[in-house]
């Protein structure tokens, strides 16, 4: 975006198709602002904007630096002007730079990149967050200033809170269908398992507590992850927005055995060990109505299609009626159109 002489002239205006678009104020006439709108195509279009349709009768300001260029911040709490348009454009700017994670205080916002980003979840990245936020964290346990937002930040801080404070930790993962919730939960659990595996190292120097195999998973987490295909077979279905949409909620509890702080201090440890001892997985709010009906271009649960598509010898073991059957053989499965 071109530089402007005054940041007050850089605003956002509503658009029926695009939601919000950046614009420059050209002039004001009472409660009408004449603006030049920057279209996604690169075209600049003049519009008259009714200020009565905006909160406080003013247009939301863009967050621009002294040179008039749009700011892109890792923590949106630092945005000078915080509103819907500013949040969306900040997320868009980071997404275009292949930065799917953005911080809002203690909250991490993830925008699904729908592509593999090299190094985003590598061993080096895992080690960096564990070292900065667990083993070598400041007195308050918060050393996020030098780190880019990441889901590893959430799991590292949860681990440290569990080890240092001895308090239960809760991580809430929510979002629209297809946002990446299931994958995020897998990443968090695997990372927490890799952190706790370093608890067996007895070295005094915190910087040497990082495991040489941070990507390793405990048997407990492996079993939880291995249960996903089974849960998804009975609880996931194709929708117009997501071919593998979870139609149920899931509550996973990882149970840690936390070392006594006094015992840890006697061994020269700054952070007590947390040994993953078990896990509980509960499901709820299954969309039961989908068993007997679904919208056009959608499907019922995967398990029914897996049964129809199974090998003949498997079908015969389950039910002879499946032999020679297709999706159209069953009214509740049927076609997806």
Brief digest:
Keywords: Actin-binding, ATP-binding, Motor protein, Myosin, Nucleotide-binding. With 337 residues, the chain is α+β, with helices and mostly antiparallel strands. The protein is built from 9 helices and 10 strands.
Chain-wise SSE layout:
Elements: E1 10-15, E2 19-29, E3 32-38, E4 44-50, H1 84-96, E5 101-104, E6 107-110, H2 123-135, H3 151-165, H4 181-196, H5 219-226, H6 228-235, E7 236-237, E8 245-246, E9 249-258, H7 261-266, E10 274-284, H8 302-308, H9 312-318
Antiparallel strand pairs: 1-2, 2-3, 3-4, 5-6, 7-8, 9-10
Helix pairs in contact: 2-3, 3-4
GO biological process, one term: actin filament organization
Keywords: Actin-binding, ATP-binding, Motor protein, Myosin, Nucleotide-binding
GO cellular component, one term: membrane
Description:
The protein is of the alpha+beta class. The strands form four sheets. The chain has a four-stranded antiparallel β-sheet with strand order 1-2-3-4, with no helix packed on it. Strands 5-6 form a two-stranded antiparallel ribbon. Strands 7-8 form a two-stranded antiparallel ribbon. The protein contains nine helices and ten strands. It is 28% helix and 19% strand. The protein folds into three domains: 7-97, no CATH class; 104-286, Kinesin motor domain (Kinesin, 3-Layer(aba) Sandwich), CATH 3.40.850; 291-329, no CATH class. The two termini are 44 Å apart. It holds the Pfam family Myosin_head. InterPro entries: Kinesin_motor_dom_sf, Myosin_head_motor_dom-like, P-loop_NTPase. It comes from Odontella aurita.
């Amino acid at each position: 975006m071109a530089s402007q002489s005054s940041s007050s002239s850089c605003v956002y205006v509503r658009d029926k198709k695009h939601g919000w678009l950046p614009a420059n104020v050209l002039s004001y006439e009472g409660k009408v602002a004449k603006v030049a709108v920057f279209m996604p195509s690169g075209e600049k279009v003049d519009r008259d904007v009714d200020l009565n349709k905006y909160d406080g009768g003013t247009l939301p300001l863009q967050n621009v630096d002294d040179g008039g260029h749009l700011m892109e911040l890792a923590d949106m709490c630092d945005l000078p002007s915080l509103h819907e348009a500013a949040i969306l454009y900040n997320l868009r700017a980071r997404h275009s730079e292949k930065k799917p994670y953005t911080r809002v205080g203690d909250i991490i916002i993830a925008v699904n990149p729908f592509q593999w980003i090299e190094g985003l979840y590598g061993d080096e990245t895992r080690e960096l967050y564990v070292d900065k936020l667990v083993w070598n964290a400041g007195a308050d346990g918060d050393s996020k200033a030098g780190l880019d937002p990441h889901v590893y930040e959430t799991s590292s801080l949860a681990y440290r809170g569990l080890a240092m404070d001895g308090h239960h930790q809760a991580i809430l993962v929510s979002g629209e269908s297809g946002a990446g919730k299931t994958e995020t939960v897998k990443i968090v659990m695997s990372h927490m398992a890799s952190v706790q595996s370093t608890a067996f190292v007895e070295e005094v120097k915190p910087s040497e507590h990082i495991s040489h195999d941070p990507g390793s998973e405990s048997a407990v987490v492996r079993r939880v992850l291995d249960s996903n295909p089974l849960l998804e077979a009975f609880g996931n279905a194709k929708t117009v927005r997501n071919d593998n949409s979870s139609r149920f909620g899931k509550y996973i509890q990882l149970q840690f055995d936390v070392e006594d702080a006094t015992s840890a201090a006697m061994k020269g440890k700054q952070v007590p060990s947390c040994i993953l001892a078990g896990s509980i997985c509960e499901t709820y709010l299954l969309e039961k109505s989908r068993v007997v009906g679904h919208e056009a271009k959608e499907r019922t649960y995967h398990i029914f299609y897996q049964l129809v598509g199974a090998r003949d010898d498997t079908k015969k073991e389950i039910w002879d009626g499946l032999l020679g059957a297709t999706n159209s053989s069953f009214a509740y499965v049927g076609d997806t159109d």
